[in-house]
Amino acid sequence: MTTNFHSHAQHGSRPPRTARVAEQLRQEISQMMLIDMKDPRVRMASISEVKLARDMKSARVMVSAVGEERERHAVVSALRHAEGYLRGELGVRLENLKAPPKLRFELDESIAYSVRISSMLRELEPEGSDPDGVTAEATE
Q1: What is the pTM of this model?
Q2: Residues 6+ apart with CB under 8 A from 87
Q3: pLDDT per residue over 54-75, tens digit each?
Q4: How far is CA 34 from the centre of its chain?
């Protein structure tokens, strides 16, 4: 089970350390992808979630990417290739950690799945109707 970082703030309690560090990792990796990394494949992707192990020695980094299946897998491959660089940078940026966690990048299929479902639903709509369910004939 993952903990939503923001839900704790609303209730006035402090989230567990692993949740706080996971959010820091998500923010830092996202920033590096946008600003520091030269590989153009990673610029069209984002980190949707980081699941940090309790011992904080490893993290599953969920990557959300747009494009064809091959392109989305290329993003994950590029991030895996850059893991050493990313861990080195995290070691410098996150002084609250003794050592940055081992990063395991995985493709987050949830957004691609949502896009596929939306596309399928649009294909099912009769011609001449709009998304609000009003047909062209009814508006004339």
Answers
A1: 0.72
A2: 100, 101, 102, 103
A3: 999 999 999 998 888 899 999 9
A4: 13
Q: Above 70 in pLDDT, residue 103? A: yes
Compute the distance between CA of residue 57 and CA of residue 86 in angstroms, rounded to an integer.
15
CA distance 93 to 43: 20
DSSP code string of 60-124: EEEEEE-S-HHHHHHHHHHHHHTHHHHHHHHHHH-TT-SSPPEEEEEE--HHHHHHHHHHHHHHH
The mean pLDDT value for 112-128 works out to 77
> Can you say how many angstroms the Cα of residue 64 is from the centroid of all Cα atoms in its chain?
4
Q: Which residues contact 86 (CB under 8 A, 6 or more apart)?
A: 29, 32, 79, 103
Distance between CA atoms of 133 and 129, rounded to whole angstroms? 6
- For residue 35, the 8-state DSSP code is I
Q: Which domains does the chain have, with CATH numbers?
A: 5-125 (3.30.300.20)
For a pLDDT cut of 70, what percent of the chain falls above it? 81
